[in-house]
Amino acid sequence: MRHRIFGLIVKELLALFRDKRSRFVVIGPPLIQLIIFGYAATFDVNRIPYASYDEENSGVSRDLLARFEGSQVFRLRGRIHSDDELAKAIDRKEVLLVLHIGRNFSRDLFASPPARMQVIVDGRNSNTAGILLGYVGQIVANFNASWLPLHGIKPPPAVLQPRAWFNPNLESRWFIVPGLLGTLTLVVSIMTVGLSVAREREAGTLDQLLVTPMSPLEIVLGKVIPGFLVAMGEVTLIFLAAIFWFRIPFVGNLFALYVGLAFFSLATIGVGLIISSISMTQQQALLGSFFFLSPAIVLSGFSTPIRNMPELVQWLTFLNPLRFALVVTRRVFLEGAGFAEVWPPFIPMALIAAGSLLGAWWVFRRRVG
Length: 369
What we know:
Elements: H1 2-18, H2 20-40, E1 48-54, H3 59-69, E2 74-79, H4 83-91, E3 97-101, H5 105-108, E4 117-121, H6 126-150, H7 172-203, H8 205-210, H9 216-245, H10 254-278, H11 282-298, H12 311-316, H13 321-335, H14 339-367
Parallel strand pairs: 1-2, 1-3
Antiparallel strand pairs: 3-4
Helix pairs in contact: 1-9, 2-7, 7-9, 7-10, 7-11, 7-13, 9-10, 10-11, 10-13, 10-14, 13-14
């Protein structure tokens, strides 16, 4: 039995890497998606186009506006001189915000209530508008912190000093790239295993395989193990890219990360084998794989928090192994977690893996064996 399974494993790996289309599925899309998500998919708002409307044009107002011009976040697009120009700049989307300083700004700095700088922001994208207002507030707070002591004015009694743990610079890449360990592993394992049985059925080699002394269980193991090896190889490739290319700090337990992703890979491989056993052609297997991938990624918490979803949908996410894989990868990467912190997600992933693999064996035996 051991020799028969080993022979089938070798055959599967050779068939996978000798075929150009299969080889591209394993190598091409993951690398492309890693680059796209690593660089393009970001929650950060950078290079914000803005305009300044300085009615006072004093040394103090210029000092405040210079802080925005010197920031790496903002990009000055021009200066406007009337309310009509202000409205046109926002309406035409030439800028996302306008900084408006009134005529008596310097005088009002010593008055009560203090001076106000008006910020007109494009609210058509509420999420971006909220982020912009936070950036503006931070620069104004830094201006106040340096201006008040120079003029003998006491600072306010309470001052907010934000501090972010685990991601000090709040770089969204630190959140996205570790999540790609689970997401891209899901894509590769589903696609490779999902096409295996359908590919043999189209080529006519499945019937030859069924007349051999191998049992359905041995055939299933011969399909699962190569998919597992490919999935863990994909994990290693993405892990090295995250560390050495994207410079994501890794402070956790490497063995805990691999154990969690091993359970996750087995769970997704079982789903892929079920899809492949049901499909009659590779095209059907491909469509079935995408039918599973889309909701799995959306319901995983990869881009949107699960707690923001409707309660019924939140319960459905417990059937999604990617949900638990993302918890493991992000906690190990950013929090420095080890087995003591991440072992709870191992249990649902192991249960899903057992259920999907048993289901794959049952479906293969009924449909193919």
